[in-house]
Amino acid sequence: MMGKVKVGLVQMTCTKDKQENLDKAIVKIREAAAKGAQIICLQELFTSLYFCDVEDYDNFDLAEKIPGPSTDALQVIAKELGVVIVASLFEKRAEGLYHNTTAVLDADGTYLGKYRKMHIPDDPAFYEKFYFTPGDLGYKVFQTKFAKIGILICWDQWYPEASRITALMGADIMFYPTAIGWDTKQDEETNQDQYNAWQTIQRSHSVANGVPVVSVNRVGFEQDGAMKFWGGSFATNAQGKLLYLASHDQEETEVVELDLNQSDFMRKHWPFLRDRRIDSYQPITKRYIDED
């Protein structure tokens, strides 16, 4: 019996001041811990504004080593509060080599390791390929004090292959630190279509794999008002049922209880993992199935 775990979701606005954002996140981690959170997830690149809207070499100065200053500060907090922290950071791996990376800190302050974002977008206002090298650590799970957790980051959320592999590695919960929003010139119907697609694909990962999903997005206007990060952070149970849904325009620190025993129940009664035809899946490794 795996029991229940309380997860904290921190949805917040950011500023240009890196230390100010880190300090704010620590305040909100304390708030979540005070509400009973055991595993606390921060949004993607929470120590800065979402800088990938422009290709600017000066933005590389925001990167840091992992482990490094931010993880050092968060390790102290994790140990003090007895909580696991999932922290998405801009990693400087070496001179000229950078990743979009999430560090995991255990409840005793131990640095458990990191996951480097595998899928890197290059869309208008999301020029991540200018900054980030695709991850080379593969998909990762981390055995924390409270649960074995899988980490995927933002653009990874669209890929069922990534969530499937993470689930097959034994993840009890999948966390998605994320940063996505609306162009403020768009109409409301387009906005809702985009948000619904984003939420639906992640809930489908929960359904297909029989594990809870926790997705934490940033909120607020950035890019000189051209982008409204849509918040809408959420948590599901092992059948994709929404247990919590954040607003589109407010900072929120919420704690949600997940019953990890539901995964076994759901996989018994909806046996998608058992019924997979793994002998037939080799074509999935092709870019496209045609004659070339």
How is this structure best described in words?
Helix 1 runs parallel beside helix 2 and helix 3 packs parallel to helix 4. The model has no long low-confidence stretch (mean pLDDT 97). The radius of gyration is 18 Å and the shape is globular. The strands form 3 sheets. A 6-stranded mixed β-sheet has the order 5-4-3-2-1-15. It has a 6-stranded mixed β-sheet with strand order 6-7-8-10-13-14, with helices on one face. It has a single domain (4-275), classed as Carbon-nitrogen hydrolase (Nitrilase/N-carbamoyl-D-aminoacid amidohydrolase, 4-Layer Sandwich). The protein has 5 helices and 15 strands. The protein starts with a strand and ends in a 23-residue tail after the last helix. Helix content is 24%, strand content 28%. Strand 11 (219-222) and strand 12 form a beta hairpin. With 292 residues, the protein is an alpha/beta fold. The chain has helices at residues 18-34, 69-81, 160-168, 188-209, 261-269; strands at residues 4-11, 39-42, 84-94, 97-105, 111-116, 141-143, 148-151, 173-178, 181-183, 213-217, 219-222, 227-230, 234-236, 242-245, 252-259.
